[in-house]
Amino acid sequence: MESLLASVLTPESPASPNADEIQTIYLVMLIVSAAIGLAISAALVAAVVRFRARREEPPARRTAGRRVVPGVATGLGVMALVIFVVGIAFAESAREADPSGPNGLQAAASRTAQVNISPPPADTDPLRINVIGQQWLWRYEYPVKESDEQTFQPVFSYEELVVPVDTAVVLNVTSTDVVHRWSVPALTGKVDAVPGQVATTWFKAEEEGTFEGRSYQFSGPGYSTMRSKVSVVSPEDYQAFVESQQAEIAAAQDSVTEEVEASAAEEAAE
Fold first, then answer.
1. Cα 128–109–215 angle (5° rounding)?
2. In whole angstroms, what is the distance from residue 128 CA to residue 202 CA?
3. In the CATH scheme, what is the code of domain 122-259?
4. Is 2-95's fold the same as 122-259's?
5. Buried b / exposed e across 202-217, counting CB within 10 Å, b at 16+?
6. Domain extents in the chain
7. Residue range 2-95, CATH number
8. What is the pTM (predicted TM-score) of this model?
9. Residue 227: beta bridge partners?
10. What is the pLDDT of residues 159-200, one digit of tens each?
C-alpha cells in the first residue's frame, strides 16, 4: 500500500525525518484540496439539479440570504487559518536539531529539515559536505578530520554522494555557472544551487541504500542528464570510501606532477 501511494499519489517513500514530514504535510494538503474540490462539485451538481429549467417553465430564481456569504467566508477563513497553523507547526518541527543515531558516524547533529535553517549548537556538529552544481553534473566535497576540527580537504566525488547511515548531514549547496536545483525526494526537499550563494539543507538517512533524484531547474541543453544519486552506507564503509578517494586523488596529483617535472627536465636538457 505504501509503495502504491508513493508511486501514484505521493512523493517517493521517505527515508529520513525531513522527507517523512514533507510527505505528511503533502498528504494533509492533498486531502484538504480533494475535500474542497468534492464540496464545490457537489454544490454545483445540486444547484444544477434543483434549479434547472423545465419544459414550458422558466428556471427557478433564488438569491442568497444575508447570512450565507458571511457564513461561507467564515468557514473558508477558518480553513485557511488551520492550514497556516499546520504549516507553521511542521516548519518549526523541521527546524529542531536532533542528535545522530547510535549507528551513525558520530554522536552529532541534527534532524533533517528545511532549507536555510539555523545551525545546531556547537556541541552537536553534523557532517558537512559541499555540493557544487555545474553544467551538467554535481561535485561533492567531503570533510576530513584534522587536529580535532573538520576542515575541507581535496576529497571529492562526482555524480554520486556517499554518506553514512543514521548520521545528521548538512549540505552546503552552490553553483559554478547557472542556477541548478538539487533534490533527492526520499531524503530531503529541493534546494537551489545559485552562483555566488550558499544554501543549506539537512537530512539523516535512516536506512542504507541508494536514493536518486535530479535537477529540477532547467540549466541548458544537458539539463536532462543532470542526476542526483545518494548512496547511504555503514560508517565503516563511508570512512573507507573517503580514505580510498583521498589516496586515489593524491596518486593522480602525484602522477601529474611527475609528468610536468619530466617535461620541464626534457625542455631544460634541450
1. 45
2. 9
3. 2.60.40.420
4. no
5. bbbbbeeeebebbbeb
6. 2-95, 122-259
7. 1.10.287.90
8. 0.69
9. 214
10. 899 999 888 888 999 999 999 998 888 888 888 899 999 988
